Amino acid sequence: MDISRIGLIAGIALSSTLLAPAALAQDVPYETLELQRGMITLDTHLDTPEAMDRPGWSIMDRHDVRGDGTQVDYPRMVQGALDGGWWVIYTSQDPEGEWDYKRVRDFAVMRGMTIRNMIAAHPEQFELALTADDAARIKGEGKRVSYMSIENSYPLGEDVSMLDLFYKMGVRMVGFAHFRNNQFADSSTDPEGPKYGGLSPLGFELLKRANRLGMIVDASHSSDEVLDDMLEHSTTPVILSHSGAKAIFDHPRNVDDARLKRLAAKGGVVQVNSYAGYLREVEPSPERNAAMRALREEMGAPAEMDEATYQSYLAKLRAIDAQYPLVDRPDGNDFFKHLFHILDLVGPDHVGIGMDWDGGGGVAGIEDITDLPVITQALLDRGYSRDDIAKIWGGNILRVMREVEAKADPKPAE
């Protein structure tokens, strides 16, 4: 099992031939950057913990998206005025079974410790955030706001009380499924189709436990029917931590207008993502895809390499990029079509940003977090007020978090 996704998406970020020079952050007025610095700017889906486990990689060093494919680090957080967000514990899955549950559970725990260790090693720059009110305080102290989330609940096995362990670790958001169906929920993208027609019986137990603990419920990657079940049965608002509009691109990972409106009516928030394959139809490159698969089969997961092997891996990745460059890459306009459609549909009280940084997100012109002011400028140009933009960048998700906290009752379920 290849638990890391770095090999899947690094080649996308390494491409340097398709930057959009007319939409770079340095072209944004200084006043826009100052506006961004004055508000709490959070992203709900940061896959950077995978990079933290790479040999020789440090969150404190400035990296280059064209060099190693990464999009988030402390120097770039400062430059792009990203105050923080939700660092993701992501796991893939093998066929369901006790041995696999244990192995993936241990991986998930260690990935959580990677995040905690990063925070502990740099106490002047980062602080673990556990409540909505922590965000303003941590920002006020000049540090980066560090929430934690789970993407794919597969490592919990068949014991929903395992969620308590991750809550105690600091996790405050939980996504139920990922690319495949699991023991809790149907995925929106499982090639075998739905297994339960929504949440499984165990999934309903997990939803109840998340509500009681005070964890934000995330429906991204889950099927439409799972979202329906969550909206009907959750005692707190539901969010989509990194999703898009099916009305703009009819992809299973995107959500139709009727469900987006239902989510908003129940107080939820749609965090709009920038994963290329979910923004519009992209012309495939069979040769590039085959070369990437061969590289993964040859070298395995980057997190398991020593530094010399990892540098060799990067060199081969660049060679693939040079031989088979991306010829049909979505740009900022494709991202903004989703963002503005959803804003027009549900209003600025129910929209946020979850770009899927270091997990495949980023488009030409919005390459990494230093380009966040491009989004703010586009919102200003569209006529949104400072208060609206502050809600989109962090206010809305923090409002949901406060509602979740208010309804928490973390006593053990009977």
TrEMBL record:
GO terms for molecular function: metallodipeptidase activity. InterPro entries: Metal_Hydrolase, Pept_M19. The keyword Signal applies. It comes from the Bacteria. Transmembrane segments: none annotated. Residues 1-25 form the signal peptide. This is Dipeptidase. It comes from Croceicoccus mobilis.
